[in-house]
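note to self: dont lose this again. the chain is below, predicted strucutre after it. 785 aa total, dont forget to put it in the shared folder this time
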Amino acid sequence: MKRLFPWAVPAFVLFLIVLFFTFRALPVFPPAAERPAEQEEQASTEVVILTTTDIHGKCWDVNLLTGHEEKNNLLRISTAVRQIRQKYGPENVLLIDNGDLFQGTQVSQVQLQQRSAGTSNDPPAMAVCLKEIGYDAFVPGNHEFNFEWDNMRGVYQWLDENGVPVLAANICHDGSDPACARGDNAFTPYIIKTISVNGHDHKIGILGFENTDITRWDQPANYPGLMFRHPENDTWSTAWEAGLYLPQMKDEGCEFIIVSYHSGMGEAGSGLRFGINTEDQGARMIRESEGIDFVILGHDHTSSYSNTSRTDRAGKQIPVVNGGGTDLTKSVFRFSEDPEGRLVWELTDSENLNPGDYEADQALKEKIRPYAAAAEAEIEKPIGTTGDGWDQSYEFLTRQTDTVDLVSKAIMEIPTRRLREKYGESGTAALKSAAGLDHLDVDMSVNSFVNSGYTVSPGDFTMRDVYRLYTYSNTIYVLPIYGRDIRSVLEENAEDHLKARRINGQVYIYEKGSNFTNLVFGGLNFTYDLSKPKGSRVRIEGFSNGRPFEEDTLYLASVNNYILGNSSCGMRSFSEKDAIWSQADDENGGTIHDMIAEYVRERCAAQGELTPDSFNWHWSVICPEDPDAPSSSDLEAAATLAVQPEDGHTYVLYHEASGTALTDKVKGTGLKGAEIEAYENILLAPLPENTLVFTARVNDDGTFLLSDAQGRYLSAIYGGVKLTKSPSKNDLSLWKSVPGRGGMNLINMGLKDNKALQYYSQSYITFSVSRSSPFIFNFYETEGE
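---
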């Protein structure tokens, strides 16, 4: 065969030649120890940032009030932290707590109570945990200001002295203390840590921010001389506060800055208005800042957006974590240097760890055991005996119940005696003259009532019952209030927090809005008539002590500190300055728990046992039928009430209390609602744009999937819901319905801890199910397409 190229060599020879020159061209590396320095690979360091938030006193493995196991606690977190430090090296692990730490359990609070009473100077259990676990920083949350300032100031000092700096850059002195100029920092704003990368030291900054809205919730005695923004920050913007410190930290050499902020994500939309959208500014702070590299959020008790990112002012994606009150967040960064020696990094892993997957740290448990023993002894203290006749209703906010009335009676009767003790005969006359009062006994109570589902039953009554009866350590103020203001508060509560629905001839009363500002009243005889127009729904008969009700007469009301001056309820115009007596000023920091215990103890001493017979006021919610109302058959229906979803049928998922249905519009971690008018058992046509109409796919066990017209499935995420293109893994798209009052609870099968669909703050999310109306939904069937 004739060759086209006579000079060509055989293929095999050519192969050997190519192979020879290929190997000659490859570099030959000496063993690592023998390589010249300039040939070393660029060294990197893995640094782990661990965070906790909203632990709320969980430092023991048993809930002492219920006896149930408590897995999400600092004992287990301690073990997780130790294992992570062993893997990465303790010098490469940063551990930060983001607040709401001390309030929440008897174990966490018993030492605070003893410190307040002057019977102990020992540090509280949570402070011991921070020290023993080795936290690098602690940022106070709003619930840290539930306690007296002098008490907590001593705790913060102890933490600082024991290697746990307390950070809060936006807590400033207000200038009332001559020793501190207005605007001076009350806490350390930030700290700087050092890591080693490629044999060189680099600085990491940790900047802390407290929630701006403390003054809405806590009494001034717990933050004397303090303000929660710089005095020049008249917008209440946390981004503004960050702008004070980020350049300063950069000037001090920080190359990577962590912001730990006791706030939720919120939205970065319209302008800031205090009490409206200042509480949760995480997204806004990131969007309006430049120079932040990692953000720790909390406060909103959701981890649904943890391990995501938000865009900052420069267009950079900033990682965000939130443990949601249950998890330990773990974020791994690989730090290295660029050719100029500057720090560069990449986030290689970010996840939320479940503390329940770890064993308790036995050494730490032994240090906390004395606190648990003291708490156990405290809650086991006998108070008295409760007799028969107690109703077992959980409808605390929509009807009168004996359980709520017990609290109302205690916070009226005990302050009445305290007023007489404080003022005496001469003082009483002077006070009456100065304040325009014609009496000095408490006429009524105005309170918010939140508990975990406890009702009073016959039997022994101990401090355990007191703490289960009333969740929070609120304090009581007594203040004069005109009749016209009482009516105004009641009317606002009816408008904002109560909803009547007549369904198939039966009236259901739902509570709506936040339960924290849904008010309950004692000592007043009145009726809410929800069939009346706004502003005319309250009919007041008088007071249980026999006093008539008059618009221009002054009465005395016991009010808890949380709602006093709270912008989210009718008590916003009142403050502690209006009070003529308070636990904060006159009892050195007592709580509602103390009043309940004292009242029960006294009643049992007088009559042997406590019964609800002495709760001699009445109130109710009614909604009479309108005789001129049309028949539902005369109205155009978009959907009709169904008992349970059936396979293949189409439904609108309707929240009765708010009068809204789900849409596909995203809001935070959930979905927005669209208002739809309901009448009897129908939703009126037409359905608003973007209303989701779901097709149900029902399984033999009654669980079901819900998909919309685009084939998207209603799926849960921790703290929220979203639409997914296919059924989510781990049953997060699988739901079951459980009958409730006026509807049903929709419980997700994939989320832990019995999480259910909830309507909260104009959004559909998921949260731990309760009997309250925010969790009550109904299916309304459409004709389909």
